[in-house]
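Quick log. Single chain, no ligands specified.
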Amino acid sequence: MPTRAQTERWAHALPDVGEQPTSASSGPGDPMPVEWWDAVLSDPQVGAKPRGSADRLQRLDQIARHLLRVECRRCGRTVEIQKADAVRLYGPQALWKTVAQPLLDATCQERTGRLEEDGCWPSVG
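-> predicted structure:
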């Protein structure tokens, strides 16, 4: 518990309620400066797709890489499979996202028993 002297010292250090701050800081309700909007809209990553999103929707026969890798966003585990093995097991027309989930689920150690959060969360790349 602070002493009376400490409380009085803190009270004198605080600004009065009616006193306006001396700095020219903007608040959450103030409009953003034009320079900020220019910087945001000229950013080359605006509208860019996340890494691996194009590969996730490709069929196995469309992927050029020979080694396919999927990582779990939940536990950090990584599973790799050669493209030839994936084609042999799942077929050339299979989507990579439908192949990635069973690869992680086969050795998943994050079982909770709840359907919504059970298993691994693939991050294909």
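The two ends are 55 Å apart (CA to CA).
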